[in-house]
Amino acid sequence: MAERALFKKILSCHVCSETFRDPVSLSCNHSFCSSCLQKFWERTKNKNCPICKRKSSKDDPDVNFNLKELADSFAGRQKTGSFERQKAEKKLTVMCSKHEEEPKLFCVDEQRAVCPVCDFSLHQSHKVVPVEEAVSDLKEQLKSDLKSLQDKRNKYKQVEETYNDVIQHSKKQLLSTERQIRAEFNKLQQFLKEEEESRLAALREEEEQKGRTISREMKMIEEQISSLSDSISAVEEELQKHSVPFLSSYKDTQSRARAQSSVSDPQLVSGALIDVAKHLGNLSFRVWEKMKEKVHFSPLILDPNTANCWLYLSHDLTSVRCGDTKQQLPDNPERNTKYATVFGSEGFSSGKHSWEVEVGDHPRWNVGLVKESADRRGERFASSKCGVWCLLHHSGKYTNGADQTVTLKKSLQRIRVQLDYDRGEVSFYDPKDMTHIYTYRDTFTEKLFPYFTVVKAGDATTSDIKICQTDI
């Protein structure tokens, strides 16, 4: 017995007081269970030996296999086969080593089973319950922990699925956006190509026109030169005659020569050269000015990543309608899932801004502004208390966010929304005659985004809600 007690002392871990499991030896020659040592280091936040406090030279010491064999042999953990090993471990862990019987009590304070004969006196001040009761309570706790883990895993799986949806949708967005970018640039390139050809044609036309003018002038010059040459030859021939013949014919020659000499001298036609300045001067600017007539500008762009699954946006992201089919879109954090709403792509946190929205004959809509932190997934009333400042139309009636009727003399086809962030004002006007409709006055503390809600009324075919081309 004394020999066994000595072996037990030598083969026991100083931290857990149990026979070594996967023992590791430090450079100071003290040994501990590998897991016990790591837990001790995590708790003390250093790498010192639990006995002598000497700093370990290794962060992760290797298992001492010789000591492990001795400890396993002493504790009956020999590798004798699965059944014998499980039986030995069960005997070691649940049997009292002195009385060879299963403990009937469980110490709640120390969280371990105790023998009612040899251990009970040590736990009189502790909360001790029957093992069956403790097992039942602990299993319930473990079941609760299991459910929490399963719920947590389900949440992670849900996020994983959403990320997969985001990846797939991003690929579709990439292809669609690439196609639209190429189409837009093809239009611009076609316009530039046509403009280039037009400019070159104008250049060639001017060159041909001025070439014809010069050719005409050259022909007249050639005719004058030929006529003058003939007169010169006649005078020279006359000068070769003798006195009597000369006297009889010189007058006609002289009259002809004097008539041609009296003709005005030839003048170069001005503007014969190509007007290079006209063709090259401010060329890029003039092409750009012409291009502005061909391109469309919108003061606001809708953000498709915020659009509800029932909403369909135009290719240029300036109009929205409520469709008949729910789209398969990723459940990203920016998306409005509760209501048929879409936000503008850019928010405002200062300054004055305005834009117009064409609502036409659409039966149900909300138009205005919303704060960035507004709930996009739960209940969100169209009121300033929920961070929404808007004008609503439903059943032929116009209301504000407080559900107060706004009286108008005629139905609206367009709405001008004006934001003065610094003064805390959101106003609505009829842009046709700038009739004031309603103004909110509030204090803004975060970024505001343009806000559009479109609801389809029954089976009626309705027009899109469009952002109009106007200055912002």
TrEMBL record:
Stretches assigned to the RING-type domain: 13-53
Gene3D superfamilies in the record: 2.60.120.920, Classic Zinc Finger, Zinc/RING finger domain, C3HC4 (zinc finger)
Record's keyword terms, sorted: Coiled coil, Cytoplasm, Metal-binding, Zinc, Zinc-finger
SUPFAM superfamilies, A to Z: B-box zinc-binding domain, Concanavalin A-like lectins/glucanases, RING/U-box
InterPro entries (UniProt xref): B30.2/SPRY, B30.2/SPRY_sf, Butyrophylin_SPRY, ConA-like_dom_sf, PRY, SPRY_dom, TRIM/RBCC, Znf_B-box
Location(s) in or outside the cell: Cytoplasm
GO molecular function: zinc ion binding
Family: Belongs to the TRIM/RBCC family.
Name the UniProt record assigns to this protein: Nuclear factor 7, brain
Natural source organism: Oreochromis niloticus (Nile tilapia)
